[in-house]
């Protein structure tokens, strides 16, 4: 029995040793030979200074993937989430357009990035895009629209959140009430 166990361990060691060059070739997205697709598909990668130095056109590439109807939903969702690191008219417009995407996860992510990055200034077009999703057919998108509103400040945001908190949709009401409580603790 022991010799069989030893043989199995030896075989595993040989197989793992032979496989190690293959494993070594699949480097983390921040290593020298990584490409943009590896970066986009790496779940824990974020556009930091090192990545932006390697990919100075990251914003344009992310916009291309996020708006590519032929790309997988995962790739579009990842690209959309990474757009939160960029603030430009092109990103803003793409996010507004993505709030009407066919996929509910993509609409939700677009709402969150839009609210976090563009609602602060009271942008009427951004607010209208978020408001439109408060009555989305998908409950998770409606909830993300309320979360997106929570990033904003001012009387028009507070009024909307109060109306939602008093509304019939329990999930939206809970999110809105939490946002209002947080705003009352940290007024800006």
From TrEMBL:
| Signal sequence extent | 1-24
One of its Pfam families is HEAT_2
Q: Tell me which InterPro entries the record gives.
A: ARM-like, ARM-type_fold
Keywords, ordered alphabetically:
Signal
Q: Which Gene3D superfamilies match?
A: Leucine-rich Repeat Variant
The name on file for this protein is: HEAT repeat domain-containing protein
* Source organism per UniProt: Lujinxingia vulgaris
């Amino acid at each position: 029995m022991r010799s069989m166990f030893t043989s199995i361990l030896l075989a595993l060691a040989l197989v793992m040793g032979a496989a190690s060059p293959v494993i070594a070739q699949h480097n983390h997205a921040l290593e020298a030979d990584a490409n943009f697709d590896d970066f986009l598909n790496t779940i824990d990668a974020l556009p930091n200074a090192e990545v932006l130095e390697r990919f100075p056109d990251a914003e344009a590439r992310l916009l291309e993937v996020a708006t590519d109807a032929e790309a997988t939903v995962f790739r579009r969702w990842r690209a959309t989430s990474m757009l939160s690191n960029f603030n430009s008219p092109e990103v803003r417009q793409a996010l507004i357009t993505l709030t009407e995407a066919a996929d509910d996860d993509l609409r939700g992510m677009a709402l969150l990035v839009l609210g976090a990055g563009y609602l602060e200034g009271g942008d009427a077009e951004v607010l209208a895009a978020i408001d439109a999703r408060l009555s989305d057919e998908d409950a998770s998108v409606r909830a993300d629209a309320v979360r997106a509103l929570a990033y904003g400040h001012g009387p028009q945001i507070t009024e909307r959140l109060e109306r939602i908190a008093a509304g019939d949709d329990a999930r939206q009401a809970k999110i809105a009430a939490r946002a209002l409580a947080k705003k009352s603790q940290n007024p800006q």
